[in-house]
Amino acid sequence: MTDNYDSRPATLFHSQRVGELMIAMIKEMLDRSHCHDRSKCESPEVEVFNEFTPKLKDATYGSDEYKGFLEGMGEGLAHHYAHNSHHPEWHPRGVNGMTLVDIVEMLSDWKAATERSDTGDLRTSMEIQKERFGMSDQLVDILFNTAAHFGWFKPNPCPCGYSTECYIHCGDGHADGKCPPWERGADYSRATSEHKENK
After folding, report:
1. Is 8 exposed, middle or buried (0-12, 13-18, 19+ CB in 10 A)?
2. Is 126 helix (H, G, I), strand (E, B) or coil?
């Protein structure tokens, strides 16, 4: 019987089923993409964000000044966290209580937030968030990989001197693959003549 077995119908059924399950998640992400942060447009949030959004724009993310503004936002910010599950504060267990859909929206939110400030940098933001929310190295690596995949990082000069388009903090090495991967957070001063020979 196995000699005549055709696996293709079962494979195609499985493929279709995986697609159906993915579409369910995609639909929820699309729904969220249409209503992200809409609670900021109504009381008690809108009054607070009207006052503090310009201040936050000019403050360095993670600085004492920035943290002070967040504290000053009081009830408005607390209401926002309580009504938007893409914030770890919404969940009793923080990031560990989030779904993949929550996390995708959270990462997109971080990226868009860095674009609202002249000093915004997603790499820096993600490192701060890692400490702030106690995220595991594995999750942070996945977030870095995702951001790199979509080209969300500003290019950094590579320490081996080969390219200025190397996203060295993402663990993927050069975008063109001509140098070995560089681990996020590693000591990049370890460039060698061997790497420079790739130029």
Report:
1. exposed
2. helix
Tokens 């388009």 found at: 165
Q: Are the beta carbons of 150 and 141 closer than 8 angstroms?
A: no
Q: Return the exposure string of 94-108: e unless at least 16 CB atoms fall within 10 Å of the residue's CB, then b.
A: ebeebeebbbbbbbb
Domains of the chain, residue spans: 38-84, 99-154, 155-199
Predicted confidence (pLDDT) per residue in 51-81, tens digit: 999 999 888 888 999 999 999 999 999 999 9
HSE-up (13 A, CA, CB side) for residue 66: 13
DSSP annotation of 66 reads H
pLDDT tens profile 124-157: 999 999 999 999 999 999 999 899 889 898 765 5
The model carries a pTM of 0.78
Alpha carbon distance 173, 182 (integer Å): 5
Q: How many whole angstroms separate alpha carbon 178 and alpha carbon 36?
A: 39
Write the single-letter amino acid at 84.
N
Q: Give 56's DSSP letter.
A: H
In the chain, the amino acid numbered 4 is N
* Angle at alpha carbon of residue 152, lines to 150 and 155, rounded to 5°: 115
Residue with tokens 């060295």: 168
